[in-house]
Queue: 2 jobs
Job 1
Amino acid sequence: METAGGLILFLVGFATLAGIASVSTLGLNICWGVTGLFNIGIAGFYAVGAYTSAILTAEPSVPSNPHLGGYELPIPVGWAGAMVISAAIAWIVGKVCLRLRADYLAIATIGIAEIIRITFRNWGALAGGSYGIHRIPKPFESLPQPWAEIFFLILVLAVVVVIYWVIERGINSPWGRVMRAIRENELAAAAAGKDVERMRLQAFVYGSALMGLAGALSAHYLKQFLPEDTEPLTATFLIWVMLIAGGSGNNKGAILGAFVVWGLWTMSEFLTDLLSAEWATRAAYIRVFLIGLLLQVVLQFFSRGIIPEKAPVIPRGESNAAKAEAG
Amino acid sequence: MVEFFNDYILSALVLGSIYALGAIGISMIYAILRFAHFAHGDFLTMGAYFALPLVALGVHPVLTIPVCMAISAVIAVGTDYAFYRPFRKSRPIIMVIASFGVALMLRSLFQLFGGVDDYYYWSIQPPLESLEPFLVGAKHLYIGGAVIVLISATHYLLAYTRTGKAMRAMSDDPDLARVTGIPTERIVVWTWIVGAALAAAAGVLLGMDTRIKFDMGWNLLLPMFAAAILGGLGRPYGAIAGGMVIGGLEELSTIVIPGDYKSAVAFAVMVLVLIFRPQGIFKGRVL
């Protein structure tokens, strides 16, 4: 009975973290999968979201380590704030950097993310510096276990479903088709009279807002948020592997990729735990190596991912291609 | 004046020349293979780590540089063969993702074999008394000498050898180079050899100046990109100038802002250059 309860808690925790990761992968899918914006600053927006929500909702900081915050606002206000502030920062970054070619944008976004992380780590008065922010409220935490965890999971999954639905509507609308057109051929899209710069900025801002929301969700899940929680390895790199493995451009693929890769990541931890203590710490690095290798294998041999992107349905009877096929 | 030299100029020169050595490779790879090589910082770290066992055997760190350069060059060519070559014909951005993965794999290997501890080639040495009041240590003289030798050798290679001239031709215009009969695949291999060897040397020099740690190179990636872009992509001499400028600005910035935010300076310079003069100071390629 004891072990069964433990197993449930473990699975619920696993699904919660995978669900939070899929919020990030959906955000990245808007940027990279749909619009082709190479954003590798996920960790930065994730940090902004997490700290914003923590500052807005946490209890006042301890006198020994004062920092901004302690407003004890309702949690939904924190989440909304996380998305708004992440979006605002993304808007500023995008205004300056989105005109750059893809590689330059990559360098620019990773630079911004590092500067954001350095700022949070060093500016104690803003977010507690290396001590981080503690006593962040968690939804349903007053319920008995395992119900508190299960309800939190349901909340996360509900968020994922809502985001999925909104993005699906978006990318199957004329808006989404313009985004794909920009990804495939920017000049042609501009020649067709589309405001490429504005559309790219929109995709970047929406995607980054979701990354901020993912950060906020994890801050409330962990109940405390430290600079280590914004490690680019998990906050940026794993998200990229998830999206590419799952199938970039496809929202179902983005979510599936999050669960599959998070599953592999967690299982590899089980395997390394079986090793002796001396090797267990070292084996943690082997896991990272294998994730890097997985990315290379996916890129070289399965570049379209588990669920490849589907061409959008064109809602005006039979398309010419279908007619040609039938004839 | 003496104080200014001790506090800022000396460290700016050391940092700038390390950036310069790393930025040459980034600039050439960017121009010839058309992608931002995100694992270049980890090539630096690789060089620094390869020197460790030799230093433990009693070899002077400066003398380990050629060995580290050779091993790193071989590994770089192997990495290119395994992880970048399959994507030569696809969009360059895929190679950026692949190099991001290579960076992660290399870093996990450093941690696997070296742990998270810091390593040092030697204990802290007092500044040389003969050069008072300038606080110049023996390490600074070794670093300076090594940089002069390395930059001169690079200059000789690029300006006087067939391979070097072909590399410059290819970084100017790969298509034109191909139609004039330059064996492009072989030049690509040479680009990796030169770029990785210089990065490895920069890593050993950085290790001599400070310490050896698994993320030492990764943390230098942004300023090295900034240096390469500032100097103009495909312009090795520009990369050297860019490295010195970025190193100088970063050190001088500590007069007005806390040292923790140094990397923001490199970033700001890079973004400004990309917006107002994307070809860099030496009229490099705009990709």
Note: Residues 15-229 of chain A form one domain.
Job 2
Amino acid sequence: MNKLELDRRAFLLGAGASLSASILAKPAFAKLKNQDAVFASGFKSPNGDFGLALLSKDGDLIQSYSLPARGHGIAANQNSNWAIIFARRPENFALAFDPKTHFEPVLFSTPADRHFYGHGTFSADGRLLYSSENDYENGIGKIGIYDAHNNFTRLGEFNSAGIGPHEIIMMPGGKTLCVANGGIKTHPQFPRTKLNLDSMRSNIAFIDAYSGNIIEVHQLPDNWSLLSMRHMATDQKGNVWIGGQYEGSAFDQAPLVARVSMGTSLQFIDLSSKHNVGFKNYIGSVTINDKEGLVALSSPKGGQVLILDSQSGNVVKSHFTSGVCGLSPSRNSFIASSEHGHFAQAKHDLHWDNHIGQVL
Amino acid sequence: MRITIILFLFLLSLVPSQAQSDKDTKKLLSNVLIEYIQPRYLDLHTHAQNLASETEHLCHKPSASNLGVVQSSFLSFTHSWAKIEWFRIGPVMSKNRIERILFYPDRKSTGLKQVQRALAQEDQTVTSLKSITQKSVAVQGLGALEFILFGTGYETLQTDEGSFRCAFAEAITQNLVEITKTLSDTWTSESIVSNYWLNPSAENPLFRNDQEALNMLIGTLVHGLEAIRDVRIGAFLKEEAKFDRPKSALMWRSENTTAMISNGLEGLLELFNVSAIETLLPEENSSLGDSTRFEFHQAIRTLNSLQKPIAGILTSESDRKQMEYLKLSVGYAMSRLDNDMSQQLGLSAGFSFGDGD
């Protein structure tokens, strides 16, 4: 174990101690009982601390927990008592929390030679948790597997079929994982530096959730080698919508939105120049409202939310709002959050991270 | 439709603050183009031409003095590059031009190994402009050239014995001339890129409005400082001296590490000064410009006392402390821009907030 990892472990231990002081209080429990939906998101407070918040569909704050560093993606499953917030790279912690508040939060971490990439998903029965991880000494993407019934003990891992796996989702049917391998190599020694832009290749991989066997890999064409596919959502038919981030020049007008399903080639979605420019080469979140047949994609850099018809791919609506990124389907629509504190219809003195997860 | 209603409510409360006027931002963009981007790329191209012609001369007439001229010219080029390398907008981001000029960090020394292999095997594909541009980016630019001019075996360049090595250097310098010519030409006043730069509009891929233009400028400064602190200094300076890695430092062979850092800071300070972005601040916060400059000057002053080989700095307790202080100073400058100034201008909540996740 190298020095960096020792330092991190020490940090995690300290963070775990402070978490016990932030268990849900009774008044919050009462608030939770009255909600028909509860959402979770990571945040940064004005004094620079990081945390996790539970909110109502209107954006009212129900409860918050402190986090040792910045949290990112949320995983939840109706068959599990737990929801998870994963650390943003290159951190290696995740916090399991019980949205119904019956159980105390569990802080767990990757092995010393791995770190999280900020996303994960449960198995259909809620027993296993899969997470996107980095084997950073070897520059290989991994899917870590944790036991949700045993304090999130790590059970093993398999290859992600690429470098820099980011969002990972469970496909309808619960047998196949879909992984967005962003293609960008990073190392904790250089926390935010992209080490292989000269040779990066992103792909979307379908992987057997039980065996880890790679079923299909959809490689991006060579002329878009600098396009990193990172965020995804699937509808109930298995159509996966993907949002990319482009590492090249803004003048290149890279195709940032794509759709793929198992057995069907990856297709880029044609957008008008205005809508493409509105993403500023950076899509930070993708979500689907299956009932309404809509896909929403957001860009905090461009302040754009674009809503597409999930059948035709046509633009239904675009919105421009500063710093918007977090998205989640709600009963009849979407809710959104921004780094300026807006969450649905509420405004908080917090900077919301890029993702919202519905946890109840 | 309910979707429209909900997002619209959200929109109502998200009208960005626009302290600055269109006219002020246009002037800022024009200043940056005319006083920073254009002269910096022209300077870089001029240095590349000098380096190429002096290398060509060395290859025709190898001698210790001609090698010295090329080494000196190499350092001048790298300092010119350091002053603009954190400006990562436009053509420099296409066709891997950044990595082709300088591939760093190279964690596993894959680039170095390729250079050493090419030298050992006298691989002819690294000796012409046409073929070297088809090779790995790691053998095309400054990392490779530094090893050729300062690494093991460099002294062969003083005689005919180094003819292959010199031809390799010559191909790299020609490559640098080509790339820097493209950069300089693309930013001329009549170019499409410059037109986009000066005129934010709805379909402008650089920025649609003044706020995005300011975001871009502050973001460039913040990300540049972050990279200098975390990648350039962080590569060799670890939490404890026993973990320091002097041979991971950029250009340690040419004893150019600290000069690259100080030129990088000077380039960012120049961009900051030329933009005069502080004039867009509310009057009660106009001193933020001076306090930001103070942090830059502190860092540059610290570096001025550390213009020596990095290995020596890291083994001297007092010099190492200075280096630690430098790292802090760079962080303070970042904080002034990322937290204080961006908030006063109503910009993003922190420029590391939306980066690559």
Note: Residues 22-60 of chain B form the longest helix (39 residues).
